[in-house]
Amino acid sequence: MKWLTWTLQILLALAFASAGIAKLMTPKAELDKTMRWATGFSAGQVRAIGAAEVAGATGLVAPVATSVLPVLTPVAAVALAALMGGAAMTHLQRGEPPYLPIGLGALAVVVAWLRRPRQR
Fold first, then answer.
1. Cβ atoms 46, 92 nearer than 8 A
2. Cα–Cα distance measured from residue 87 to residue 57, given in angstroms and rounded to the nearest whole number
3. Around Cβ 84, how many Cβ atoms within 10 Å?
4. How much is the pTM?
């Protein structure tokens, strides 16, 4: 189960980091062409979403990997799931299918569950 948890964490972290970096580094006009939802948000809001995704990606891996406050990994996973809930709502409001954010959010919930603090 440990290898499955790590694999899921790393894949999610890569997905969120790459999406977040794209939002941080790509000009807003270009994002509007490839990410149609971005037209409803300001450049600052899109950058904030990207920063949240990069921070969440870091939080999925770094705390457990370094054994420094590993409780932050499930917290990051829950925060990313909430972010994906908002993304799904945005897609639904725009008449777009929300499959990707729902799937990523569900996987983040699985990571939160697998990495939850356990009572001894």
1. no
2. 16
3. 24
4. 0.93
